[in-house]
Amino acid sequence: MLYDLTLRMGYSYDVPASGARHIMRLMPLSLANRQRLVAGSITISPTPDEQSHFVDFFDHPATSFMLRAPHEALDIRMQARVQVESQPIAADFSPLLADLPEEISGIWSLAPDSPHHFLGDSPRLTQAREISDYARSCARPELTAMQIAHALCARVNKDFTYDPEATTVDTTPLEAFRLKRGVCQDFTHIMIVALRSLGIPAGYVSGFLRTIPPPGKERLEGADAMHAWVRIWCGETIGWIELDPTNNIPAGMDHIVVAYGRDYSDVVPVIGVLKSYGGQRAVQSVDVIPLK
């Protein structure tokens, strides 16, 4: 499937900001046997005074830029064409939960995709007993690691209500868990904490999701937003799988990957600092247009 993507992220300030330095992770990745970035570009207004590119620990291209002069608004636009490949349905050769620690201990690599990076606490995710108890209810001893991951995905989807007004980007997993409401970031964080509490390596995936309008309704341009889902390590034979708890589906041809990390802090689309005071407002719009 070929997609054209358009993303706009805009910020406006009550008082002109200056000395702003930001890091962006917005461009979809090229991943072997998964997706290919055909072409892409990012434009920034005002034009940065400094701009550089680097690759972070998790092998993601990132862009750092600085704006010295006062500016009342910042506008970032990304355009890309991405080819997404269909994924084969993998048979479940993952180990039982009791056998997973032995497989993890046999992994000596500390490469970016090593399961060791995705087992313990991370900057935004710490263990919470309420979520651990919730996870154990899905972890019967006769189930494999993959079966437990699918069971937790379905359970989170069933027990939590999608509500964009209930949480903010800074809401903790435990706060969202107690609310039983939130957005894709909340559901993803809750599922990651739950899986890690069982000893199953799990991480965060940032990307785009093609949304299909109801029958008879036109697709709304710019109505989409960036999406998040979960990456789970299911043993040496299976490796990593990806599940979307917001929709209770495996990540497939409608999911386009931008970045992998331990939690949201590793994949924030735009992060930075600036000198200003007063309030600021942010807008985001995404178009995911299938071409064939």
From TrEMBL:
Q: Name one GO molecular function term.
A: peptidase activity
Give the highest taxon in the source lineage: Bacteria
Whether Nucleus counts among this entry's keywords is no
**Residue ranges that the Swiss-Prot or TrEMBL entry lists as coiled coil:** none
Q: Which keywords annotate this record?
A: Hydrolase, Protease
* Domain Transglutaminase-like: start-end pairs: 176-247
Q: Name one GO biological process term.
A: proteolysis
Q: Where is the signal peptide?
A: none
Check the record and name the InterPro entries matching this protein: Bac_transglu_N (IPR013589), Papain-like_cys_pep_sf (IPR038765), Transglutaminase-like (IPR002931)
Name of the protein in its database record: Transglutaminase family protein
